[in-house]
Every structure is written in structure tokens, then in C-alpha cells.
Amino acid sequence: MAAVPLDWYLILAGLLFAIGTVGVLVSRNAIVILMAIELMLNAVNLTFVAFSHYMGKNDGQVLVFLVMTVAAAEAAVGLAIILNIFRTRESVNIDDINLMKW
Amino acid sequence: MDLVGLIPLLPILGFAAIGLGGRWLPKKAVSILGPGVVGASFLMTLAVFFQLFSLPPSERRVVTSLFSWVVAGNFSVDISFLVDPLSMVMALVVTGVGFLIHVYSVGYMGEDPGYRRYFAYLNLFTFSMLCLVLSSNFLLMYLGWEGVGLCSYLLIGFWYEKKSAADAGKKAFIVNRVGDFGFALGVMLIFTTFGTLDFGGVFSQAPALSTEGGQRIATAITLLLFLGAVGKSAQIPLYTWLPDAMEGPTPVSALIHAATMVTAGVYMVARCHALYLLAPFSMAVVAVIGALTAIMAASIGLVQNDIKRVLAYSTISQLGYMFLACGVGAFTAGIFHLVTHAFFKALLFLGAGSVIHALSGEQDLRKMGGLRKYMPATYTTFLIATLAISGVPLLSGFFSKDQILSAAFFSPQGGNFLWLLGIVTASMTAFYMFRLFFLTFTGGCRASEEVQHHIHESPHSMTVPLMILGFLAVVGGYIGMPHALGGVNAIAGYLAPVFADLPHLPEPSLGMEYLLMATSVVVAFLGISLAYFFYVRSPQAAERLRQNFLYTLLLNKYYVDEIYQALIVSPIVAGSRWVWERFDLGIIDGAVNGSARLVEKLALRGRQLQTGYVRQYAMAVVMGVVIILAYLVWG
Amino acid sequence: MDAQILSWVVFLPLVGIPVILLLPKQRPDLVKWAALGTAAADFLVSLYLPANFDSANPGMQFTVTLPWIESFGIYYRLGLDGISLFLVLLTTFLSMLSIYSTFSAITEKVKGFYISFLLLQTGMLGVFVALDVFLFYVFWEGMLIPMYFLIGVWGGPRKIYATIKFVLFTMFGSLLMLVAILALYFLNRSATGGYSFNLFDFYQLALPLSIQVWLFLAFALAFAIKVPMFPFHTWLPDAHVEAPTAGSVILAGVLLKMGTYGFLRFLFPLFPNATFQFIPLLAALSIIGIIYGALMAMVQKDVKSLVAFSSVSHLGFVTLGLVAMNLQGWQGGMLQMLNHGVSTGALFLLVGMIYERRHTRLIDDFGGLTKGMPIFAVFFMIITLSSIGLPGTNGFVGEFLILLGTFRTNPVWAAFATTGVILSAVYMLWMFQRVMFGEVKNPANAGLPDLNFREKAVLVPLVVFVFWIGIYPNSFLKNMEGSLADLLNQVNRRETVLRSLPSQSWSEFLSAGRGTRSQAAVPVKPSP
Predict the structure, then answer these.
(1) Calculated CA dihedral for residues C477, C479, C484, C487, nearest 10 degrees
(2) Of A42, B488, C259, C332, which is least surrounded by CB within 10 A?
(3) Does residue C452 lie in a domain region?
(4) How confident is the model at residue A2 (pLDDT cuts 50, 70, 90)?
(5) Which domains does chain A have, with CATH numbers?
(6) What is the pTM of this model?
(7) What is the pLDDT of residues A19-64, one digit of tens each?
């Protein structure tokens, strides 16, 4: 079985990351933004795993676990915040949530 | 000589006891303690004086050091006292006349609620004055110098609830500080020049300054020191505080502003004669300032209506005489006049105090008169003092004034002009003193009925000191009776060890001396007769004199106070206020607050970046990443 | 205890803080006594220092050295010499008295006040004994925080403005100083290869003039603001007017001395060549400060701001004495620091006492107080006289030595500075007259109670020092002479040696690397 070249992984990760970034920038829905961020994190995870395999070291795979836990925590906290905001403002549109300005 | 430390110590102990004892101390105890310590101090001074006298003349200079005061690097000054003929003369006058005035004060201030405070201050004054005259270095002298200034301030403003008294005290202190400014700089220059402040060290090294450059330093030192003397001894241009100082209790005027403190300048100049002799220019300045002050103050004294102010101007004028003497090199004559002046001027002030006491506080000559029959003791003693100051022969003032005038005439540093100023002043002195005398004691009484009813002779505690001083004012002159009149001039011989380094003046011809003497007697009687004419024979003539411009000018003291106020005091105060409001608050603080406001403005602009839209922040982050990446790839 | 005596002195005030925290809130009196007890204990412990001080030894005594952040060369290094000895004593002494003076003035947030005060005390003491520059900086900045609260919480109507102004001014200077300290650290590292914040290591750096100038300016600005020298003085009147009495006492009595202490301990020995270059500027600013402060004091309407401006004038004397660069000037300057602490501290206490009675400080509101308050009048008069430098009081000895030292350096400076002596009499006596003399015109001034026991107990020790220093100053001069003479020699010697160095830029110096130090083999006493 011929190994998939590293470049392909990186291209895929780059695409995923770009999609995530665009998602964060263009979406107004907080939940969608959260999912887009998840996508960006997983793009990074993919590069970690790819490099780990390519270099023959396990550090990258360990880091992926760390990132996954952080992502899970972040999703939990983020969803909790969004839930709370929705309860008070009846909206998940982040353009409505602009109290923290001058 | 070990007793010398006790001389100033006793009065300061008295001050401490009365000051700390306060209300717990019964009034009686204060009456004993206050004069007592000064009397004891006088006895100590006498003891030391006789000890000194028992030494051969050339060894009459003893320094007693108590402890080292300030030591910093190579600068070292001790608390140490110098006993020599000059300091002993001064100490005797200070404690002797001082004691009499303390005793007098027991009667004069008896009813005053501030009785304890008064004696505490008076003792403190005696202490400071003794430090001044007994010190053996310039720094301790400076301590006494400023200390007497302080006491003068406290005692002039003794009745502090009166604004004029508080003002006068403050004025005295500040004007004196202007003089002290010079004195302090002089002391520093002495230290940098000689490396010591001890009289012995400084004066023994003084001859080294006889070079060209050295003379310039000597001139600088002596002029700076003289500025101090001008302030303390109320000479032109710093005399304006002394007439105002009459706001204080009268015995204070007698002690501080006539007999002792104001003569400190003369003492200092005489003490530093070794330096002055090296600086002919300074000598000339001293002589001219002295002569001008003498005649100017006498001219103001001609027309003043306040009994104490007349005496104050008289004091300024007589001090001018003493400086004239020092300036022409006749230091002995200056000190001699200082001593006789202490007697008769203290007597005049105390007599005036007795009069004021009798008239329930009245000081205006126009509301006195005819007191002769009510107050015989005061009248007699006052007459003696008036005759003495006017230069009537055979009384003390005649001898000392005559010595000064003759020195001014014969000395190489003197001259006809200075002598002329002196002789004119002498006749003015006779005039204003007898004007005062006639207005007070002769004619009818011009006081109100109410006041007249209370006129009484003063108690013994006041009249006895008057009589003692009267006696001294008569005989005091004989310690300096000139050779021309068959005397031995004891004081000159006594002071000779101190002034041994003075160049010998050419012995004037006897005939000339008699001529000068006769002249001064004539002008004195001229002055007296004029006073008699105007104030006893035809008072209408005196009224007519009031109409002219010169009279107004004199009555207003040449407007010097007003000029100082307008040219110095007001501009400084107004200028400072302006600087505070415009510069300190306006510019400096304005810059500080302005920069704070600038930051605030910038922040107001800058915070608009914080829009509150999360997506904009995210966009900014992405843009930032893109830029950094671009830099890393292509930069 | 013996080896760690300085640590005890510095940190003993902190011991009082948990005690105060544990005391019940309803019993402010207990809190006050606890604070006073702590300060008094600290004062008593600090008396160990003069008792065991060896005046023949000019170097550091009672030294403490413990590792702190070793990898950066930061040590906990304390020591005391003749320069810091009396400043430490002044701090413990004044802190004790001012805590005692606040018993009636502080009624709100009592615990917080005394905790801040004790923290402040530790900070001040630390500044005077720290020999590690990093440690010094920690104390220097740390002390700002409690002072910020003292003015900002317990102050007068414009307290927020005043306290922010005070902190910002000081911060501005100290941050530049921090940069300069770091620069020294790296310069030292490139010269020796070692990591050190030891002040004595910095003393041995052979810095070329071009570098010294910049570091000098940074340090000088920090200290000049603290002193404060003209024109950096405008924070002082505001801070004083708004601060509570005890805050003013400490501010004037101790905090200002940190600036002048910094001149002696850091500025002159670290940058001797730059110092000599800038002496004319420093002298000019000092003289302007003397005269300007006095003139401004003359026209103030508020007694406290009058005293504040008089501080500007008095501190001008101190800095003038220091830049005279001779022993008389330095000893006079050191003595004048103590004098100013005693006299101005007492003046603020006195003003606080009438403020508590009348709730005003405007001069025009007073008049004739002597009548009803004779004891107060006596104290006020003595302190006034000491402030105007009357011989026999402390002010005279200091001022005279300063002027004498200045005269030896430059008679013209001395002549200008001496006018300050005249002006001080003008503004103090004029104020005294308007407040104390005259008739009682305002009925509110009639029947004011005279000083009570506590107030007298606070003032008497200060008056004792007024006369002690005035009559027998040698007990103070003797102890500081050795250290000052030693430091003076060092500054002069280093100045001559370093003058011959070629001018180098920063990068040249840093890249020159090791060996720079050996080029200028300056014989300096080894660090402890």
C-alpha cells in the first residue's frame, strides 16, 4: 500500500483550516462559529498526526490528545456561554452581542 | 576664669526655669528669679573682670572652651568664650545695665498678664547677648547675633494682640535677617580664607592679607560683616525697624534697643578691627555710613511727637557716632561712647517709661507737660541724662562724644567733612533732647483730666535703677577723661591690649583740641537755647515752623518706609502671587495636566477601535496572521 | 537576632498587620493601639542600630545576604552605613509619632489605614537599607501603593486628583530608573560576564561618559521628582494639602528624603563623570528651588501648601549641599534631611492639630490663636524658629554647613542660596503672625481647647530633637562623617580615573565584552 504523501495531508489540513477561518469570519451564528473553530482545531490536529507519522515520533500524537481535550473543554464552556446569552437576549447572533465596546 | 561659662549659663537657666515653670511658678518667684540670675551673672562678670585685671596687660586674653559644637571635616567650632578687656566691658554693660532694667521691669510690668513670659524672654535675651559678646569665634557670635534678634522679635511683639506690635516685631526680624545675610556670607568667606572661625586664629593670620589680592578679600569680608552690623545697629539703609521697635514694652526698648543689642554691630566692628584696618575702603564706608546715619536720624528726631520715637531716632543717631569713630580708626572712642550711651540712653528710656507709666500709657509729647512737680525723681534723673547726651561738659556724653569728634577731625581716615557732620548732629541732638525734655516736664500739663488725676511718681523698683543709672551717666565719662583735660583716659589704657595693633595717631596739638572742644560746647548750648526759645519762650514760633515742606518731610521720616514698601515689599509679594498663579499653576501644572488631557484625548480616539463586533476582531487577527506570514515568506 | 537585625527592623511592621486583621472591627481603639505598639516596637528595635553602630567603620554594617532569585543574580542584600543609619531611625521615629497623632483624626476604615501605614513603613525602611538594586526597586515602588491609598482614601476633597498626580509623577521617574537599572545590569553582565544586581558591583563599572550621561539622566529624573526639585514639584503641594496629617508627615519627613538619599547612594557614585558634568544644572535647579519655593510659600493661602512649598525650598538646600561635593556640604545636607524630617513633620502635625479643631487650614480663617492656646503657640513658635534656621535649633547647623560647603565650591551660589534664609523668615513669620497673633476676630477661634496630653506627647520628642541637633550636632555628624568621607573620596577618585576613558557608544561597550572592567582597575572597596 503506497503511502499517501505528506503534502496531501497538509493541503487537506490547510483547506480545512481555511474553511474554518472563513466560517468564523462570515457566520453570524455563534454556534456555527464554534463549529468552525472546531474545524480549525481539527485541521491542526491533522497536521500534527501527519507530521508525527512522517517524522516517526510520537510527540505530535500526544499533542493531539491535549488539543482534543482543550477543544472539548472550550466547546463545553463556549456552548454554556452561548446558552446563557440566548436565555437573556433570545439570540445567538453575535452581532447583537456587542456590549463590550467603548 | 572658669566662671566665665556661668555668666551666660545663669540667664539661660533662668529662662528655662521661668519658661518651663510657667503657671506653677508663683509671681513672686519670677520677680526674684528673673532679675536674680542676671544679678548673679553680673557678680560673676565682676569676679572674672577682676581676675583678668590681675593678669599683666599682655596676657589679658583667656579662652575657655566648653565643648565642641559643630565638627564637619576640617570645619570645627567650639562653644568657647573669650575673656579680654573688650569682651569684659561689654559683658559688664550687658549684665550691669541689664540687671538694673530687670529690676525696673518688676515694677513696670507688674500688672501685665504676660509677666512670666516677659521675664523668660528677657533672660533669654541676656543669655544671647552674653554669647554674642563673650564668644571666641564667629559661629557662636552668630548664635548670639541671631538669638538677640529673636528676643528682639519676641519682645517687640510682646503685646501680640496689637497688630502694629506684631508687625513691628516681624519687621525687626526680617530687616535684621537681611543684615545677617551679609554676616553669614562674611563668616563663610572668613572660613574659606583662614580655615578657621576662631578669633585668635583669624586675627593672627589677618596680616597675611596685606597683599593686593588679600586686601580685596579683606574688603569683601569686612563689608559683608558690616552689612550685618548695619542691620543689627540700625544704620542706613536698614534702620527702619528700630523706630517701629518702640511698640515693645519700654524697658525692652531701654535694654535691647538702646543699651545693648543695637550696639552689637559696633562691638563686632571693634572686635574685627584687625580685618578692618586692612581694608581702608571698608573703613571709609563705615565712617561715612555712620556719619550720614547720625545726621539723618537726628534730623528726623527733631520733629517726632512720640516720646519713644524721638529716643529711637536719637539711638540711631548715636550709633552712627560710634560707627563714625570705628570708621576713622578710633575704636576705643567708639567703645567708650557705647558704654556712656548705654548709661544715659537706658536712663532716658527708663525715664520715658516712668513718664508713660504715670500717664497711663500716653506716649505723645503733645499731651504731656509740667510733670516736674509730680515726678521729682524721674525729672532729676531725666535731666541728667538729657544733659549728658547733649554733650554738656563734665557729664559722660561730653567726654565720649568729644573723643569721637576729635578723632574724626584728626585721624588720617577722617576729615573736616565727617567732623562737620558730627558737629551739626551734636547741635541737633541737644535741640531735640531739650525739646523733648521741655515738652515733657515744663509748662502746663496738656493731658486729659482723667489722666492727670492718676499722675504719680513711680515705685522704688523703678526709681532706684533710675538713680543708679543717673549716677553712672554723670561719672561714667571720667573713665575716659582726655589728657587734654588732665585725665588719664583709663578706658583707653584698659582696652589697649585689645587694640595694640592699631597704628598710632599723630598727637594733635593741644590748642586745636581745646578749640574743637569749645566748638562742641558752643553748638550744644546753641541747640539747647534754640529748644528753650521754641518750646518754652515762644511756642507760637514752633507752630509756625510746622507749615513748611521740610517739616513734613522730616515728620514723615523722608518717606523711606513708604519707598521700601513700594519698591521692595509690594513688588515681591505681587510678583510672587503672579508667578504662582500664572507660572506654577498655569505653566508647570498646566503642562502636567495638559499631558494628562492629551493622553485622554488620544485614548478617546483609540477606543473606537473596540467596536464590540467579535467578527471584526477575528478579521483583525486573520489579517495580522496574513501580514506576518507574508513578511516571513517574502520579507 | 543580631545577624538579622536589619531584617527585623524592616519587616517588624508587617507583624502588626495580621494582628490588626484579627481584631474586631467594632474596637477601633484596639486597632490603633496595636498599630502604635508595632511602630513603637520597631522604633525600639531600631535603637539597637545606633547603639551598636561603629562610627569608625565607613562601610556597610549589619549586612544580610541571602539568595533570592539566584539565576538572575538577585539577592536579598541589606546593609547600613552612616548615610542610612539616621534615615532609618528617622523613619521608625516619625512613623511611631504619626501613628500616635492619628488617634483622633482617623475614624473611618480604621483597619485599612493602619495596615497601609505599616506597609508603607516597611517599604520606606527597605529603600534605605537595600543594597541589591533590584530589591531597592521593589521597595521603592512597593511603597507607592500604600501611600496611594493613604492619600486616596483618607484624604481631603481633591484626594483622587492628588493621589493620581503623585503616583503618576513618581512612576514616570521610576520607570525610567528601571530602564536604567536594567541597562546597568546588562552593561555589568557584558563587562564581567556575571549576573548581578549588587550595587557594589555596579559601583565598579567603568562606564564611558557618553553612556553615563543617559543613565544619569534617568536616575536623576526619578530622584529629582521625589525630592522634589524645581520644576518637578507641583505634585507636592497637592499631595500635601489632600493627604491626612500622618500622611503629610511621612511624605515630607521620609519620602522626600528618598530622593536625596538616592543622589548620594546611587547617582553620584554610579555616574561620577556625568555628575560633575551636570553639577551646574543641579545647583541652578536647587537655587531656583530655594528661592522659588520660598516666594511661592509666601503667597499661599493654605497653611499646608505653605509648608509644602517651604519643603521645596528646604530640600533645595539639601540638594545644593549635596552637589557642593565636599564634606561640609554633604554633612550639612544629610543633617538637613533629618532636620527637615523633624521640623516639617512637626509643622504638619501642628497644622493637623488646629485643623482638627477648626476644620479649615486657610490662613485667613485664623488669627489670635495664641490667646486661647498658649502651649500650642509655644510649640508652634519653636518649630517655626527651627524651620527658619535660628542658631541653637537644628535648622541652623544644617543650613550653615550646606552654605559653607557651597561657598567653598562657588561663593555666588552660596550668596543666592543665602537669600533663602531671609525669605524663610518672611514667609514663616508672616504666616505665624496671621495665624497666632492679633485679636481673635473670628468667634470660631475663641475658646479652642489647648493641646491635650497625646498631642503634647507627640510634639515633645520632636522638640527635643530640635534642640539636640541644634546644640550638640556632633552625635549625628560624627556617625555620618566616616561614610560620607569615604563615599566622597570614591566619587572623586573614580571621576579622575574614568575621565581618561575613550568615549564609547552603547553597542561598542556591550560588544567589547569582558575585560572592560580590568582596564579601569579602580580600587574600590570590595562588596560585602
Answers:
(1) 170
(2) B488
(3) yes
(4) low
(5) 6-89 (1.10.287.3510)
(6) 0.89
(7) 999 999 898 899 999 999 999 999 999 999 999 988 888 888 999 9
Interface test with A, best of B601, B614, B626 (most A CBs within 10 A): B614
Q: Provide the 3-class DSSP secondary structure of residue B219.
A: helix
List all residues of chain A from 5 to 24 with a beta carbon under 8 Å from chain B: 21, 24
| Reported confidence tier of residue B502, pLDDT bands at 50, 70, 90 | confident
Structural domains in chain C (count) = 1
* pLDDT confidence band for B506 (50 / 70 / 90): low
The single-letter code of the amino acid at B322 is M
Exposed (0-12), middle (13-18) or buried (19+): which is B431, by Cβ within 10 Å?
Answer: buried
Q: Are strands B75-83 and B62-72 parallel, antiparallel or unpaired?
A: antiparallel
**Residue C188 CA: distances (Å) to CA of C182, C487, C493:** 10, 21, 20
Identify which of A94, A100, A101 has the shortest CB distance to residue B615: A94
Residues C300, C458: contact at Cβ < 8 Å? no
B-chain residues near A100 (CB < 8 A): 610, 612
Is C404's CB within 8 Å of B75's CB? yes
Report d(CA B102, CA A11) in Å as an integer.
112
Q: What was the pLDDT predicted at C512?
A: 58
Residue C426, domain member (yes or no)? yes
What pLDDT, in 10s, does the model give residues B313-333? 999 999 999 999 999 988 988
CB contact under 8 A, C478 and B71: yes
Q: Output the nine-digit C-alpha cell for C341.
A: 524630617
Question: Is C298 within 8 Å of chain B by CB?
Answer: yes
**Is C447 a member of any domain?**
yes
Q: C400 at the B interface (CB within 8 A)?
A: yes
Which residues form the domain of C349?
271-471
Show the 3-state SS of C484-513. Answer: HHHHHHHHHHHHHHHHCCCCCCHHHHHHHC
- Measured in angstroms, the CA of C192 and the nearest CA of chain B are apart by 36
Let me know if residue C320 belongs to a domain.
yes
Residue type, B306: D
Nearest by Cα to C395 from C332, C321, C319? C332
Omega of the bond leading into C449 within 30 degrees of 0 (cis): no
Mean pLDDT by 10 residues, chain C (528 residues): 84 93 89 94 93 88 90 91 93 94 88 93 94 94 92 90 91 92 90 87 86 92 92 91 92 93 92 91 94 93 93 94 92 94 94 90 89 91 93 92 93 93 93 90 85 92 94 91 90 81 71 48 42
The answer, yes or no, to whether the previous bond of A5 is cis (omega within 30 of 0) is no
| Amino acid residing at C398 | G
> Does the beta-carbon distance from B619 to A100 stay under 8 Å?
no
Q: What is the DSSP string of B17-55?
A: HHHHHGGGS-HHHHHHHHHHHHHHHHHHHHHHHHHHHTS
Report which secondary-structure segment, H or E, holds B70.
strand B62-72
Tell me what ipTM this predicted complex has: 0.91
* B window 560-619, beta carbon within 8 A of C: 572-573, 575-577, 579-580, 584, 588-589, 592, 596
Element (H, E) at B376: helix B376-390
In chain B, % of residues over pLDDT 90: 48
